[in-house]
What does this fold into?
Amino acid sequence: MVPFVLVLLAYAMGSEARRAVNPADKLLPAPAQIVETAARLVAEPDRRSGIILFWQDTASSLRRLALGVGIGAGLGLLFGLAIGLLPLVRTSFSGFVAVLSMVPPLAILPILFIVFGLGEVSKVALIAIGITPFLIRDLSARTSELPFEQLVKAQTLGASSLAIALRVALPQIMPRLIQAVRLSLGPAWLFLIAAEAIASQDGLGYRIFLVRRYLAMDVILTYVIWITVIAFALDWLLARLSRRLYPWAEVRA
Amino acid sequence: MSFVVVDNIFQHYGRRPILERVSITAQEGEFVSIVGASGCGKSTFLRLLLDQERPTRGQITVDGQPLTGEPNRSRGIVFQRYSVFPHMTVRDNLVAAEALGANLFGILPSPKRRAARERAMASLDRIGLAHVAHQYPASLSGGMQQRLAIAQALAGKPRILLLDEPFGALDPGTREKMHAFLMDLRAETKMTVFMVTHDLPEAFKLGDRVLAFDKVRWDPHDPEAFGATITYDFDARDGGIPYQRIKEETHVLDATDETPPLASSG
It folds into this structure.
């Protein structure tokens, strides 16, 4: 708790000092003003459209994030298992994925905008493309780390390749998937906010970059704190989910 | 006819020979222990029996059928470690022994699953693991995990059980208990067992035969030039002295003998 208090204190003192020189300072708004702005943002509907923009931004961003991360996780799991389990797939694809994962996703954002237009698809695609190579590499490495003894044992019990993938490999990879998704949430937010900043009509990233023009630090800070809270909550929920669904993975650790 | 026939097999990895000229036959129901120094091909031989690998030359037949190159249900295996599935409870590990091979997806339909669970509980009861049925293997002791691994291998009803240093990681007391456990199971099932071990007393105590693997040719300038083969095939029944109950033929003069051989010949 102490570091949080210290940062808050440092901010309050900096804000105090600046406003003592210039009461109209916009750079470091007083904590009280941020709270006031936050209260206004979450409760007051937009005068023109009648909807509360804060919640609409949140919903849009979370939908994009969930779709992008969901698609990325699905692809990562599928290809990760295939590359980790099937030697034929590994020899033909693992090098390809290694090279693919070096392509900077933001550099291909213009391509996505050209191909998919400026709508939702390109934003979701950016997140999915950004995190999928990492997920594939991580999960295929984890899959091939499964002790071969287990796979042989399953074979001697008559398991088909599909049964080994579904009953032996998949359940043991799931906690790893959750862990990998937790790690890739950071990049996912980065891609989301970048895509929203460039071309969007709503979303948390869009709003921050919009109000930047008015130097509305109180709004920006409110949104930044809100994004941090959401990101932290997602991470915590995933960790809890993993512990709840896969208790055996904790015993080993 | 012999149950397992290993006919003059050679196994090379690349240019490196591991096994050469290995031939052996075993009867159904025999317990064969395999000993030898590290790196002399014991485990390779077990992998060949398991059908996990194919020999470079030669052929292994089981019950007259040549091996196909993929492990299947006719063999059960217990390794020193990692033999049980860590993500399944103790009971589900035994259920999986029936479920994995049940169909393409390895999932039992629910009425069969209920019956399999009851069977699993019954065998857990018998091997003394019923009280941990709903725990995960990681929370079990080494001996309990190996007991589970053996029970799991046997639940698949294999014709041959292969054991790769199954008790190597256990303390001596637990090992003794595991020996008794294995002997009981064997008396019940009468299956053929091949066991690789580093522990000679264990090999002679459990086995009907003890095979020793070693290199017969040895080039000090190129230790890997030659592979290993079976150098001894001991009869290990009755604790390694199979004929102790038979009156031995001695060439020593017996004082109680009324007609000494020397006197009669002279």
Chain A touches chain B through 26 residues (CB under 8 Å). The CA atoms of residues 171 and 215 of chain A lie 50 Å apart. DSSP finds eleven helices and no strands in chain A.
